[in-house]
Design brief:
By secondary structure, this protein is α+β, with helices and mostly antiparallel strands. It has 2 helices and 5 strands. 15% of the residues are buried.
Length: 99
């Protein structure tokens, strides 16, 4: 049986300058928080606020320039994936193909 690993998915719904949905995945929560922060700093200016949701594993993403920081504009959540389909495996496969 193939090993299952934990990944994280970030989902952001931006309304400026045009409505856009951004999704990206990574191997750990802190990396996705950092990348979300960088993205939102460039798109909306200012710092994002990450808060745990009622569901223990879900992290909500707020920004003061989106509905005055009262409504989340996205979330980050863990999910399980077969190791062969993980972010790390995909990167390894692409590096091997490029060599």
């Amino acid at each position: 049986m193939e090993k299952i690993v934990k990944q994280y998915r970030a989902h952001l719904e931006l309304t400026t300058p045009k409505p856009t949905i951004c999704e990206f995945v990574g191997e750990d929560l802190e990396t996705l928080k950092s990348r979300t922060q960088v993205l939102l700093t460039h798109v909306l200016s200012g710092n994002a606020d990450f808060r745990p949701a009622q569901t223990a594993s879900l992290t909500l993403v707020f920004h003061p320039n989106f509905n005055e920081g009262k409504t989340p504009l996205g979330w980050i959540a863990p999910y399980d994936v077969p190791e062969s389909m993980s972010v790390g495996a995909a990167i390894e496969q692409r590096l091997e193909a490029a060599a």
